[in-house]
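new request in #modeling-help
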Amino acid sequence: MDLHLDPEDLAFRDAVRRFLDENLLPATRRATALTTGFINDPEVAVVFHRALHRKGWSVPHWPEKYGGTGWTQVQRYLFEAECARAGAPIYNGAGSNMIGPVLMRFGTDEQKKKYLPRIVSGEDCWAQGYSEPGSGSDLASLRTRAVRDGEHYVINGQKIWTTHAHKSNRLFALVRTSTEGKKQEGITFLMMDTGLPGITVRPIIGNGGDHEFNEVFFDDVRAPVAGRVSEENMGWEVAKYLLEFERGGNPVAGRVRAQFARLATLIGKKCPGDADIVARLGELGTDLDAMEMIELTAVSALQTGGNPGPVSSLLKLRWSQLRQQLAELAMDAVGVEALRWIAARPLYDTLQLPADEEQMLSVMPRYLNYRAYTILGGTSEIQTGILARSLLGL
Amino acid sequence: MDLQYTTEQKLLRESAGKFLAASYDYTSFQKISGGEPGWSAAIWSEFARFGWLGLPFAEEQGGIGGGPVEVAILMEAFGKSLVLEPYLSSVILGGGLVEALGSQQQRESLLPPLIEGKLLLAFAYQDTSSPVKAQRNGSNYVVSGTKNTVLGAPGAHQILVSAALGDGATAVFVLPRSTPGLTIRPYPMVHGARAADIDFGAVVVPEAALLGGNQNAADAIDRVIDSAIAALCADAVGAMTAMVARTVEYTKTRVQFGQPVAKFQALQHRMVEMKVREEEARASCLFATLSLAGPAAQRARAVSGAKAKIGRCARAVHQAAIQLHGAIGTTDELSLGAYAKRLLAYEMLFGTTRDHLRRYAAIISDPGIAAAGLLYDQARS
């Protein structure tokens, strides 16, 4: 056992670093550093995504025949860590981490041909229509109705927490096509264009000031049946498969590490002599080391063809909490200055200040927005319930 | 990067677990810890027979040539079974120092009997308000001062002691326990292990007693203590694992309100939290274990980080385990209390959680180190 990078991995890491030096523009880095929400604005991220696409690296985790890289698990890990360290944005996870893998598993050849290349190139931006006002953690209770009418489904109902619906041209949604039997058995998985008549997007502004979430209303929306993935009423199986990717998926320690490093820099400038703050930074550092080690152990298991076990829920539980605690410590380190509020978003278009002052203004919005990390993608309580079954057999 | 256990390592885990499950249950622990000398000669000779006493030493010294991972596997099994035998003090600390510093002659005279189970060592390194100093006097040294918390000293045949030389360097001397002027004041500790404070009253020792001659031993001492901390981390992971498993088992059988209390969500979530702490502790321990051979900066970060992180996890786990057992968890009827005490000893020995957190925080506050992940480039470091 060892933690060494072998010469090929080092050469790979250096190649990634060179690529980032040459292709990650200063304006993009700044925009990423001043992004206070969870994900980057597509208009910022797509610039970097196009550079990745030219290099053939835009969907590294996909199979090669769909545009993936064929990298080893360790290389994927290094790539994510280097991108995070350099301050690279992430483009549109709903495409490459959700609908993409779902189409590879359940899509028809025609659907794959139509949608996958446009995810690889970044032309399509996807939104995820899962949650409803009455169906959050209990997702299968969803009520948005879809009634078959010839070659269309007629949809009526409402989705909520639809991230970046206002910036996406495509949407996938879970809709109810039957009320018979168990609630899981009447669900269908549908893809559609967000521009269809009858779709209305209403913004939800987070208390951190960012517009990421939306409500999406469906009034007699006619969506082509050709957008259905798998069979009618078989959508729950598709939905669960997608959640595996949403909760598991990409290596995450590198992103948390980058947040930790920014915090260490901030504390070094603002309050290097504050023993309480420094001790809390230390505690969070040991938490992060442990989490990274858990993730590396899973990577190593995958690399050798083994099964990493029920680790994705454990990682989600810990990284979401850790990101919150890091944002919280940043706020505590800044103190009263954290109260200064700029309402306009995005901050990178609004501010024209020295970099340190700009960073200071992002601390409070980030703290507030990050409260959602332990809620979205399966709450901590849901993850804990999953772990009670999978880790403890309860 | 490879984090998979080899077949041999899995076999070691299995055989250690099997032997200890059969010969070291809670009743035997109580018997051993309640009597003198506080460990079992019969068990110790079994350890020798399995080759465990020679596990970390090179084959040319009569050892097995195992590394930190093998030691951690064994220590985790010891923690799981509450083993009190002086493995950490005699083999890891004592033997480790002899191997790191000793001359060929010293290694040949000390290591084979240690490996055969005939010689016990202890290392006195923890200074007091009267730190141990050595002054040259002709061809001899005069050693004076007091060390405390010397693990395994009550049963040790030879005492290794670190001493400050006049020039700022540190030396290690090997002294028979019967050396005139050396006073061993033994006591039991809360978790059943034995330790002693040792007074060195102007002890006259020959130059030949210097371990490895006239070199500065400070770096070697740091390295050996770090390896002992990593080993103790594995012991704590074993103890935590046992506590979590016992708690889950107990709540599945304890019936209240007509159902096993494990059915209650409040208890389930608390137990998941315990299990997550155990997994985090295991991961931290592995990081420390694998960093022992790495560059000094990585080693210090990993070892102090693990000591602090596991300290916090251990505190949370032992408290939750007692709480979820209810009243019976506060008694000596079950082994739970013995595990709790073992974890408390873990927290305090070799620097407390707070001490190591400070050491770690000072290292990690450097933004360059803060940004560095755990994988490293061996060639450039």
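bot summary: Chain A has a mean pLDDT of 95.
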